[in-house]
Structures
1.
Amino acid sequence: MAVFTRTTRNLIVRIEEFFDNIDLGLLVFREGVKAFLDKDMETFERHISKIEILESNADKLQRSIENEMITHSILPQHRSEVSSLIDVLDEIIDTIKSSLIEISIEMPVIPPSLNHGIETITEASVSAGQELIPAARAYFVAPYTVREKLLKVYFFESETDKLSRSIRKTIFQEMNDLDLAQKSHLRYIIHHIENISDTAQKAADILSGMAIKIIM
């Protein structure tokens, strides 16, 4: 069952562009965190500028998509679900932007011994978001493949949780040279990173339900 008719080509293009912005935003976040850990502040600030542009583009595309869905031929029963999916995907890039800006403002002091752990959490959380994009694209062309593609989203979200628990345990139980304020600050930064995979899982739940309905 097709979600779109032949008259909605522009809408399809805008949705693809929206997905592209989210995908690029995830890459920028990963590289931005790496630059911060490497103390390469010039590159870090450059990544913030990139994410601000991508987030602005995504917001414009989101509004355009919503207008197109109202005025053109997307099947009415799918409008609300597609809109909900776009909203949650937009939350991902909003989270990316706010997280990098928070890091830029607060400038957390991260012990070098935690660098590898934070890079690993970042990679897992970003991977959850990255695996979501092909599943979202598939919904519009091959919805019967969506649930299989979503398995990796759930895998990486679970891995992010495990890694987060492990590094927080290290911070609070083993790093006695840090005071409670420093430990809490590090936990806050880790929570920001973890939010990406949590939001990806939220989108995956919505997308899974959408795919089931469309193939029935």
Note: Helices lie at 9-37, 41-71, 76-106, 115-141, 146-173, 180-215.
2.
Amino acid sequence: MATPQDVLHELGDPTRLRVLRAILAGRKNVTQIVAELGLAQPQVSYHLKRLKDVGLAVEEKQGRWVYYEANRASGDDRIRSLLSLLGHWLEGAPSVPPAAPPVVAKPESKPDDLEDFLL
């Protein structure tokens, strides 16, 4: 069973929160989530696994498809309460933005001596 720290840690990732929001809206397979969020399939699968590992998501296999949804029927009332709260909270919120890429400062370029000579 996941600790509260584990669950909250998983919710701290913006991409994972976007994936959770997608499955809070209803049962979906990875292909549907990929299309909805514009993420790569391996990325979505990774985040679904992390959500599943802490009990926030469940999977159901149907033939060759695997569907995911929020674990609203969890045996842990804290998980059920948290998912209910997140469902209400994220319902009216603007979409969760993707994580911004890190800003890398570029060193100032110094002109080449040859370039100065030619000018």
Note: Residues 77-91 form the longest helix (15 residues).
3.
Amino acid sequence: MVHIYGIKNCDSVKKAIKFFKENNLDFELIDFKSTPVDCDKIKTWLKDTEIKTLFNSRSTIYRTLGLKALNLQDDEKAQWLCKENLLIKRPVIEYNDKLIVGFNSTQYEGIFLS
């Protein structure tokens, strides 16, 4: 089963869901707003990807919280991801032993359709 983490009104998450539906692929959406991701899950993800891939410094919440001015180190960014899931770049997809962050149709085709 493919697990898609994100928020249902996010454009990138919508594109991912559309891809899965169009290709008749089973998935489960875990919405950050109704089911927050805990620090253990984030630590697991950070074993499979870099903080710069997972931490969304272009998000509205990043600007709203004024995090740029704090000049955060990687460990501080990880702590913020635990406190504020909306800082996580979306979607985050768990599939077999893979972690895919963001939407890229070419990448998805290579992973899920081959």
Note: The first helix runs from residue 11 to 22.
4.
Amino acid sequence: MRELKQYAAIYRDELLDSVIPFWEQNSIDEKYGGYFTCLDRTGKVFDTDKFMWLQGREVYVFSLLYNQVEKKQTWLDMALQGAEFMKKYGRDAAGNWYFSLTREGKPIVQPYNIFSDCFAAMAFGELCKATGNPEHKQIAVDTYFNIIRKQNHPKGIYNKLYPGTRPLKSFALPMILSNLSLILEDVLEEGTAGKLLKPLISEILNVFYQKDSGLILENVLSDGNFCDCFEGRQINPGHTIEATWFLMDVGVRLNDAALIQKASEIMLNAVNYGWDEKYGGIFYFKDIKNYPPQQLEWDQKLWWVHVETLIALAKGYRLTGQETFKQWFLTIHDYTWNHFKDREYPEWFGYLNRQGEPLVTLKGGKWKGCFHVPRGLYQVWKTLEINK
């Protein structure tokens, strides 16, 4: 059996020698500021619209590298490149972050998606640790508490559902808030993050987690009960797996061994449940009752699902020492590097068909940017390095 500690250098080198240079060389908009994220296989820009959640994600990644890897001025400059654009154009009068802007910074899509706010808070929270700039800190704090105020009605006036008939709430928000609260712990007033983490953990484990299946539902009724409809039966293995490493990090922070163990168990359930026995890889969506999923892309294999799984398995192995996590890590590593890594050009493919062939060869677009691949490479590198 291969030793996982040998893989730390592979992930480090891919991050620093291939993926990060790709974004440094191709994503900067020298004329109007911010980043291009719609990049083809070679790095050529094919669309100039700017999506706030991807702008925030890239600010976060370069701030994280500056704070945790090396104090390189070029990395800080990259982070500021996006932050200045976001600060100038990214919010409406009430402080809500738009979904998308033109290249020049004019709003295209209203702030209907609270995840633009989540990644803006993450971006400025990490950036202020690098700059010490009180304005960066204030943007992070204001945005964070705006999210907290809106968490029960995240879409606000942009919610297209008829009120009262089928009131659903989504797992995605408590999931990301558990991670965001940890990232902003040093930015918020002392004790704030800890107070918010406990109810988030409780909601994940007592509402969305289903004891009978050992899986996490993407949506439940507002009272926490199961809803037997397309949305209510939906399982997203990647979301579940990503959430479990957030919970493991929270468990480490709180010194909660039971939480770490529970998160690792749920993660393993999701990996086994999502794995495609015929072609390999992890399915995008499944239906908990095994009915046909509503998403026609249900059987695609996506980059972020596999990258997040590698993080979760590496952390699970480091924290528990269970051999099962090591075996699964090696399986997912082989699949991911054999299918998503582009052998001719830097960065990774994002979308594969069920058989593992690229559906499109873009390296960035409306949904894929400078985030999951670099963050995943960084997380796996640092997690495995600890095992040396």
Note: The radius of gyration is 20 Å.
